[in-house]
Amino acid sequence: MTGDFHADLVAFLPKLRIQALALTRNRAAADDLVQDAAMNALAAQHSFTPGTNFRAWMYRILRNRFISGLRKRREIMDIDDAPPASLAVQAGHEDRLALQELQRALGELQPIQREALFMVVLQGMSYEEVGEATGCAVGTAKSRVFRARQHLAARLLGETNPAPGAEGSGEQGGAAVQRFLRAGAQEVRRTNRSGP
């Protein structure tokens, strides 16, 4: 971080948007969430201590805004009922099929597992940072990511009922999950640059 709050905030917006997409699973809602989080951060910038973890502070604000939004709205679409096209990508047929399978598998995850997985795999956050940003213990953050990876690896390797400790959920499966997640994130970024 540069030490200039406004510059750091602007530079961090693309990563914040990826996390917002992981939470909302809807582009428009993600944009609104990022905007609200940025406004909250600007209003609370006096409470940020320079030299501390800006990234975790911003993720905490984003997550809190998301949770507040859920609490305020009584009639809300369930996060898992969001339209699958909200993360649409332009890719080859095989890539589209693989990404659709990944999207279905991601949709099966508990939201807290999906959130932790995206923070670690796509944002490159440490487990300590994830714990700090989500308000949980480091061991809990590790467990959420492990279970998410285990489930995704099992689904991507063709297991219909992934079970804990299943054969296909080892390192090979974890590498496949990370590769698919990163490819999906790159497609989302490309789509975002070119517009809807």
TrEMBL record:
Pfam family, one: Sigma70_r4_2
Residues of the RNA polymerase sigma factor 70 region 4 type domain: 100-152
GO biological process annotation, one example: DNA-templated transcription initiation
InterPro entries linked: RNA_pol_sigma-70-like, RNA_pol_sigma-70_dom, RNA_pol_sigma70_r2, RNA_pol_sigma70_r4_t2, RNA_pol_sigma_r2, RNA_pol_sigma_r3/r4-like, WH-like_DNA-bd_sf
Residues covered by the RNA polymerase sigma-70 region domain: 12-74
Molecular function GO terms recorded: DNA binding; sigma factor activity
UniProt cross-references to Gene3D superfamilies, sorted A to Z: 1.10.1740.10, Winged helix-like DNA-binding domain superfamily/Winged helix DNA-binding domain
Cited SUPFAM superfamilies: Sigma2 domain of RNA polymerase sigma factors, Sigma3 and sigma4 domains of RNA polymerase sigma factors
Transmembrane feature ranges: none
Domain of life the protein comes from: Bacteria
Keywords: Sigma factor, Transcription, Transcription regulation
PANTHER family: RNA POLYMERASE ECF-TYPE SIGMA FACTO, RNA POLYMERASE SIGMA FACTOR RFAY-RELATED
Family (UniProt): Belongs to the sigma-70 factor family. ECF subfamily.
Name under which the protein is recorded: Sigma-70 family RNA polymerase sigma factor
Source organism: Roseicella aerolata
